[in-house]
Amino acid sequence: QVQLVESGGGLVQAGGSLRLSCVASGRTVSTSTMGWLRQAPGKEREFVASISSSDGITRYTDSVKGRFTISRDNAKNTVYLQMNSLKPEDTAVYYCNRHPLAFGSWGQGTQVTVSS
């Protein structure tokens, strides 16, 4: 069973940057499309970005295009999310998982809070 551990979140002012990491263990994720999702208080979990396994094709939700960059290091079984020009509406708990068909388990997520 895969274990996913997200890290890198924190409190940042609007306009700031954070880099999230997601380390997978228990199985390789190098053959899986991986994604980042987020869940704000009182809202459903939503898609943020994904990256394919073989050719590294990336996709983003419209609200983060041009500000966020997803990447992966298959040798480290790790997926990253570079977040720039952060806005208060980016405040949420961020999770990574296989996309679109998630693994059966989720990590604890990492909290991102953007102050105005």
For the record, give the distance between the C-alpha atoms at the N and C termini, rounded to a whole number: 40 Å
SSE series = EEEEEEEEEE
Number of DSSP-assigned strands: 10
Unreliable spans: none
Mean pLDDT: 96
Question: Brief description of this entry?
Answer:
With 116 residues, the protein is an all-beta fold. The chain is built from no helices and 10 strands.
Please characterize this protein's 3D structure:
With 116 residues, the chain is mainly beta. It is 0% helix and 49% strand. The chain is built from no helices and ten strands. The protein has strands at residues 3-7, 10-13, 18-25, 34-39, 46-51, 58-60, 68-73, 78-83, 92-98, 110-115. It has a six-stranded mixed sheet with strand order 2-10-9-4-5-6, with no helix packed on it. A hairpin with a 4-residue loop joins strand 7 (68-73) and strand 8. It starts with a strand and ends with a strand. The mean pLDDT is 96.
What's the arrangement of secondary structure elements?
Elements: E1 3-7, E2 10-13, E3 18-25, E4 34-39, E5 46-51, E6 58-60, E7 68-73, E8 78-83, E9 92-98, E10 110-115
Parallel strand pairs: 2-10
Antiparallel strand pairs: 1-3, 3-8, 4-5, 4-9, 5-6, 7-8, 9-10
Question: Main attributes?
Answer:
four-stranded antiparallel sheet; six-stranded mixed sheet; mainly beta
